[in-house]
Amino acid sequence: MRQKAKTPEPRIERAGAWLRDAHHARQRFASLPADLAPRDAGEAYAIQSEYVGMRAAHLGPVAGYKIALTTPAMRAMVGLNDSIAGDMHEKAILRGAARVKAADYVRLIVEFEIGVELAEDLPAIGAPYDRAKVSQAVGALMPALELADDRNADYTNLAAHALMLIADNAWNEGAVLGAPVRDWQKIDLAGLRGVGSINGAVVGEGHGRDVMGHPLDALAWIANNLATRGLGLWRGDVVITGSLVTSKFPKAGDLVRFDAGELGAVELHVD
């Protein structure tokens, strides 16, 4: 079962509310006021938890997780020395061919990922996890498209707001999942080639090894990240493991597709 969240400090609660209101007002991504800004990664994740909890009223409970900044180059760009985790809400996880409205986002981002569905729990008490341990808990794999919103962030200035990426839930707004592949064990996940396209034109490609060396190494990373916060992964949770293709910014009218080889394909229509 999921752990009960601790009662937040008043400052952390106010920071979560500030983020919620900034999103509601469609404000540009920016740092929290100085008196509310996270002083370290622990506070940033506490603010994220508070903000995510406030969104649960209309998006449902947390049902999965994302991983951001999975490459050294991306981490260096924002001034962090580790990847970051974000939560995904139940109602924001879409399955099969899906449609979203571009107007519902300040600036929609789509990323091209391998998704994991858990068949067994990975509780905090079981940490540290490695690829071999987490693979035993995997029930299915599938192609996935992450939905995110950078709220017109200034990418040249991200290093000044590095902890804000954590607090702002790594910009996640959900995911689109393809059909689950339950007989995945014989697939070469490191060598798996994924191709992203928009309106039939290829916009990038990559391999499973481009994400932390192996998608299941990414799964182990997030299990360990959660464990440091006293949290676990649970049966039925979904994890999207990081993009094989650089982020894209689709517009209304676009058809986004991710073909993940033996894992199949998934599509998103942007209205």
Describe what you observe in this structure.
The chain is an alpha+beta fold. The chain has a single domain, classed as Fumarylacetoacetase-like, C-terminal domain (Fumarylacetoacetate hydrolase, domain 2, Alpha-Beta Complex). 24% of the residues lie in helices and 31% in strands. It contains 6 helices and 12 strands. Strands 2-1-10-5-6-7-3 form a 7-stranded mixed beta sheet. The protein has a 5-stranded mixed beta sheet with strand order 4-12-11-8-9, with no helix packed on it. The protein is globular, with a radius of gyration of 17 Å.
Q: Which characteristics define this entry?
A:
7-stranded mixed beta sheet, 6 helices, alpha+beta, single chain, 271 residues
Topology of this structure?
Layout: H1 10-24, H2 41-59, E1 62-68, H3 72-78, E2 84-89, E3 93-95, E4 98-100, E5 108-118, H4 131-135, E6 138-149, H5 162-167, E7 172-177, E8 193-198, E9 201-207, H6 215-228, E10 238-248, E11 255-259, E12 265-270
Parallel strand pairs: 1-10, 3-7, 4-12
Antiparallel strand pairs: 1-2, 5-6, 5-10, 6-7, 8-9, 8-11, 11-12
Helix pairs in contact: 1-2
